């Protein structure tokens, strides 16, 4: 129906629905996207933003619903069809080939001019160079991508989209690893593209950015679109309310544990450095407190956690556990010393999806579950009893401990992963993004469990990019920026504003522009 | 508008059809192998009742299956931890040659020759494991490389079959019937399968193997020494290959170069058939046994009906492709369901 195309919006998403393992990730989402506008897409982790984008990209097949572009139905589950419809996607990981140069990456998969069957890079490069000029690339396109900064890689990705004549470019957390001035330059490019008629789908957790940049903002919560407003109709408070579903609660100060620094720390980090990600970090962790590590993605927090848990070895510095110097060569040694990590990526690093809840809980304590001590046989009875005990203690909702963990919600999987360490003699539990992809209710239960563990004497280090979570959970917050600890907050000082202030670059930073 | 309503109805219909298809496919991928095995038994019994349906023939099938089952269940261990072993056939051939050589040339007693042979197999397996985990060579390359080397080393050791100087008692091992009138290899198979099943399902190390295969990173973060677990799995595969090689030499009464090479494909076919049994896309011992039985019953039936021997590779290759295809489909549907 061509007439509909000229009247309605350029892209029309209707009733898009997708569930994973019985959980609705996207629930009848309706969204219109116009060319020449910047569309902001916000929502908590797990709200359905990435599922929506993956459906558009054809990487995920929606269960129901349709996407119409300029009046034509977009074929489901075909990345090729999505590309041909003019959709381009730039993910945080920036899918570039590091040892190809910028030009090769821009032209990857695009038709090239050939001579005698060989690629004529000079002539093929004409379009690429024009695109590079549009986004203001000033470095030579012959530079290898591995030698480019993150900001420059973003420009390469945008050029790549432009060479393909993209009508819409979706960007996922573009500023996550950009400095202030770099972000500003990216915004200028986005505005520029938008005036040239390109639709931008801008996904970000940075609400100020979204409010400043986007013409229209759509809020997702639990897979549903809960709010959509034009620029100016929303402020930050309203946006936060839409994202979390209620007003932000001021954290209850009575709950904050006052750290007793006169006693010996459970765990000490001394001048730890690793590559360019961690630059000489020192701190102490005391009994009873929930110590949290805040900062932006890329600040070096996960790298620090990996060093503490033996995943990687520090280039310099050392750790002390209960006042004794500790050398950790690998994960197994860390676990035996009593240091455990609940990782950031639950699915790829945490759960064994095909296995049962009991299997997942018991895997780190198999020795304690032997039928006869000294013989390597696992007692089914002891295993079930331990798993059932932890399921009850943590309030894990599962049909039985024998059910496959893959069928549980993210929050319950996360609780099981915490449960894995409760009977393992853990002295220090590091939780990287403990409530990522977890709904609000489960988040509170997870926080309660973490707090109870801390009070019972287990050292707790929680890492979170979610500023609200830090204010709710932490008794003491350390903020990291670019591999260093830039500040410490305790008691009433733990506020979102203070954390954000310490997380970001100062405006008078030394960084120049990106190109 | 009407056009849209039409497509919506068509979409809903295709969705219904595809979910019906999905259920059927998952069912097929779980029970298809068992149903296939039963159908084969029923078909052969009905069409050749006198020959197929006899105690002697069943024992024949079982003893044929036993050597494959032993080597295939060892292979299952490497696949459980997410690795691969292409050397098992060559290990079986090599060890089969060495075990006879130890008796014929070195004059070792039978028991010592066998112990040495099995330890040698386990050591080769462990070496594979070290190459894969510590040196970090891709398992396909390292096991293929080691296996190829073994062929050459075997030839260096003895360029012709070792048939003389082998004690009669050694050949009696595979030919004898010590328990319930069952051929000894069948008894040995039962013992090996039970032992491997118990280790995989009832012990620490088995749980750790499953954890490593299920999610390597998660296993590592759980404090499991992943490298050791993998090396153990490779050593077990080597041990089982050596056992199959030894039994084959006993059965043949000689140590022959390349005698057991063909077990590689049989073992893979069996294990992948097994992975499509009961549990979608997972490797397990009972599945492997069913895979082995399918191959053995199939070969047996083909020969009873007088099919030319070159039909055997067609059947074997076809069933391998079918099994891997089913396994892959099952995994995909299990993931998307």
Task: Explain how this protein is built.
The complex is a heterodimer of chains A (515) and B (337). Chain A has 515 residues and is α/β, with parallel strands linked by helices. Chain A has 2 domains: 2-244, P-loop containing nucleotide triphosphate hydrolases (Rossmann fold), CATH 3.40.50.300; 250-338 and 425-505, Rossmann fold. In chain A, 33% of the residues lie in helices and 24% in strands. Chain A is built from 18 helices and 22 strands. A 6-stranded mixed beta sheet of chain A has the order 6-9-10-3-11-12, sandwiched between helices. In chain A, helix 15 packs parallel to helix 16 (440-455). The model of chain A is unreliable at 1-5 and 505-515 (pLDDT under 50). By secondary structure, chain B is mostly helical. Chain B has a single domain, classed as ABC transporter involved in vitamin B12 uptake, BtuC (Orthogonal Bundle), CATH 1.10.3470. Chain B has helices at 2-47, 49-52, 55-80, 88-104, 110-133, 139-157, 168-175, 184-202, 204-214, 216-221, 226-252, 263-275, 285-304, 311-336. In chain B, helix 4 (88-104) crosses helix 11, helix 5 (110-133) packs antiparallel against helix 6 and helix 7 (168-175) crosses helix 11 (226-252). The longest helix of chain B has 46 residues, at 2-47. The radius of gyration of chain B is 22 Å and the shape is globular. The two termini of chain B are 32 Å apart. Residues 1-15 of chain B have low confidence and may be disordered. The A-B interface holds A 1, 21, 63-64, 66, 73, 309, 311, 330-332, 334-336, 340-341, 343, 345, 348-355, 359, 362-364, 366-367, 370, 376-378, 420, 424 and B 3, 7-8, 15, 202-205, 207-208, 210-211, 214-215, 217-225, 282, 337.
